[in-house]
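Why do we bother with a discrete structure alphabet at all? Because it lets us treat a fold like text: something you can write down, compare, and reason about line by line. To make this less abstract, here is a complete entry for GNAT superfamily N-acetyltransferase. Read it the way you would read a sentence in a foreign language you are learning: slowly, and without expecting to understand everything at once.
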Amino acid sequence: MKIISVRKEPKFKDVAIEYISSKWSVPRMVYEDCITHCISTPNPLPQWYLLEKGNEIIGCAGLVTNDFISRMDLYPWFCGLFVEEAHRGNNYGSLLMEEAKRDASKGGFRKLYLSTGHIGYYEQYGFRYIGNGYHPWDEESRIYEIEL
């Protein structure tokens, strides 16, 4: 099992763009622009990760300034967690969470946030529900935080 940081291994940029954009209903150009610029920015954000098992990409996640949510006073955000269905139930998502937490802490942040409709999953890993936020596409999501 290997976590690939696209910033640290930019040769995975195109793979990350294709994989991540195929998993989320956000226009490809958004991921292309964000992932491309994460490689050269001196800022600690954004970061994008791929999870590789053998030679197969089986998951992804990101660490960003805002996850398309109204609470722009909160950052950074853990976003886009996805693990292929055949590989779920093995705590692989937690590997991506831990990598993002380490990078957020190295970047000087004291908390990490996420927005989700899932109830019960992130709490297992220490995230605490703090309220709701609103997306531009007229949906509401639960907001969680964790101390780093």
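What the structure line is telling us, in plain words: The CA atoms of residues 44 and 140 lie 28 Å apart. Strands lie at 2-5, 47-53, 56-64, 77-83, 111-116, 128-134, 140-147.
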